[in-house]
């Protein structure tokens, strides 16, 4: 039998998804929800915690729970998370389309970004479709010193899963930069950009645990569909 708090979570999530409750509105209080669902406040609190974890609400101390805009997907900035992991965690209806896989000419500027002289760089371009809309263009580049040219099937599923589980690589950390750029012709050709003229780009240099630089990536996001989140602590 499904636990009561999961049933409450699913019912509230469905109401938010179907816009019965709108973004930026406050949910009823814990007491009101407990009365509506004929359960305890503790059970309601568990459901609210699950809603917060999945990006439906933001708890505001002393005020209650505010409904977030679920038309935007929350992407963690500080972590290193593959698209497959993110899609699974957020339960997204998603597809990946591999547009190209190829070695780069030695004159390509990515060689300088990856600080490579004696090895080759290969890249793959992938389009991410969520809920029927193509809204992310991922351009990933790897040093073949660490990552050999991979198959289309691996690139479609999860490169990081293959690197860690099959190649035994330990991915350590990344340096990230978030910028807003004008759409390129490639963006317009591959993404459903509607009337937008700008795109949000996360540029990352990714290192193994031994601090070896092995990947450069540009992840290009349609601006209306994402919020980029981080955890920050004030240090005095």
Quick overview of this protein structure:
By secondary structure, this protein is an alpha+beta fold. It is built from eight helices and ten strands. The chain has two domains: 4-67, Orthogonal Bundle (Arc Repressor Mutant, subunit A), CATH 1.10.10.10; 73-229, 3-Layer(aba) Sandwich (Chorismate lyase), CATH 3.40.1410.
Write a structural description:
Helix 2 (30-36) packs across helix 3 (41-53). The longest helix has 14 residues, at 4-17. Strand 8 (198-208) and strand 9 (213-221) form a beta hairpin. The chain is built from 8 helices and 10 strands. The protein is 27% helix and 33% strand. It has 2 domains: 4-67, Arc Repressor Mutant, subunit A (Orthogonal Bundle), CATH 1.10.10.10; 73-229, Chorismate lyase, CATH 3.40.1410. With 236 residues, the protein is α+β, with helices and mostly antiparallel strands. Strands 4-5-6-9-8-7 form a 6-stranded antiparallel β-sheet. It has a two-stranded antiparallel sheet with strand order 1-2. The chain has a two-stranded parallel sheet with strand order 3-10. This is Trehalose operon repressor. Keywords: DNA-binding, Transcription, Transcription regulation. One of its GO terms (molecular function) is DNA binding.
CATH topology term of the largest domain: Chorismate lyase
The major pleated sheet works out as: 6 strands, antiparallel
Tally of individual helices: 8
C-alpha Rg, in Å? 21 Å
Average per-residue pLDDT, rounded, comes to 91
Uncertain regions: pLDDT < 50 for 5+ in a row? none
């Amino acid at each position: 039998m499904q636990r009561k708090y999961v049933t409450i979570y699913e019912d509230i999530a469905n109401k938010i998804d179907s816009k019965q409750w709108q973004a930026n509105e406050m949910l009823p209080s814990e007491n009101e929800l407990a009365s509506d669902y004929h359960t305890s406040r503790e059970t309601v609190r568990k459901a609210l915690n699950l809603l917060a974890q999945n990006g439906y609400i933001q708890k505001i101390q002393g005020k209650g729970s505010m409904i977030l805009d679920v038309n935007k997907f929350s992407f963690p900035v500080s972590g290193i998370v593959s698209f497959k992991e993110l899609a699974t965690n957020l339960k997204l209806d998603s597809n990946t389309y591999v547009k190209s896989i190829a070695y780069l000419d030695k004159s390509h500027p990515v060689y300088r970004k990856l600080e490579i002289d004696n090895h080759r760089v290969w890249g793959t371009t992938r389009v991410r479709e969520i809920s029927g809309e193509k809204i992310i263009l991922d351009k990933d580049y790897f040093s073949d010193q660490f990552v050999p040219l991979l198959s289309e099937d691996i690139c479609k599923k999860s490169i990081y899963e293959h690197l860690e589980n099959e190649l035994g690589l330990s991915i350590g950390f990344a340096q990230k930069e978030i910028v807003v750029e004008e759409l390129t012709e490639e963006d317009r050709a591959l993404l459903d950009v509607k009337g937008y003229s700008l795109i949000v780009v996360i540029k990352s240099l990714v290192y193994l645990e031994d601090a070896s630089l092995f990947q450069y990536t540009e992840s290009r996001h349609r601006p209306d569909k994402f919020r980029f989140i981080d955890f920050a602590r004030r240090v005095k």
